[in-house]
Amino acid sequence: MNLYNIGWKKFISFILIIGFFIIGFSSFALAWEPKLPSRVHGPSSWYVNGKAGRYFVPIIQGKILSPALGIVKTDSNCKPDSQGLSHCYNEIELLSGKMITIQNTHQMSKFHCLYPGEHVSVRPDGLSSWAIVQINQ
After folding, report:
1. Distance between CA atoms of 135 and 137, rounded to whole angstroms?
2. Residue 21: its pLDDT value, please?
3. CATH classification code of 46-135
């Protein structure tokens, strides 16, 4: 057995191992997305959040105890992350005059952001800090 063959075999082994790591990590990165909370009545994935104008959102500030109508006042922080998901912040003024702030995680290339002036229905989702926001047509 000469040194040339041993070096070649080590080189091929090294390339194969590196290839497996690259494929494994890139597959992991592509499959990753923020986890939805357990026991939710929302979408199966953040990538479909917003389908049919229905958004499942955490309430960042304020509270909602019963269904209410509202008007979207702001839309900010909409730059997509490395997974193509936007994590927009929206302030919604409820008809009662109360304000809530939500974080709307969605794939903006498929489902538009909630925009200022848009009329929505907001209802709590059973989890104290989560809600369903439905765009009113």
Report:
1. 6
2. 57
3. 2.40.50
Instruction: Examine the pLDDT at 70 and tell me if it is beyond 90.
Output: yes
CA–centroid distance for 100 within its chain? 19
DSSP 8-state symbol, 34: P
Rounded to whole angstroms, the Cα distance separating 34 from 21 reads: 23
Mean pLDDT of the chain: 82
CB atoms within 10 A of CB 55: 25
What is the rounded distance in angstroms from the CA atom of residue 47 to the CA atom of residue 137? 22
HSE of 97, CA atoms in CB hemisphere, 13 A: 0
DSSP string, 40-62: --S-SSGGGTTGGGEEEEEEEES
- List the chain domain ranges: 1-32, 46-135
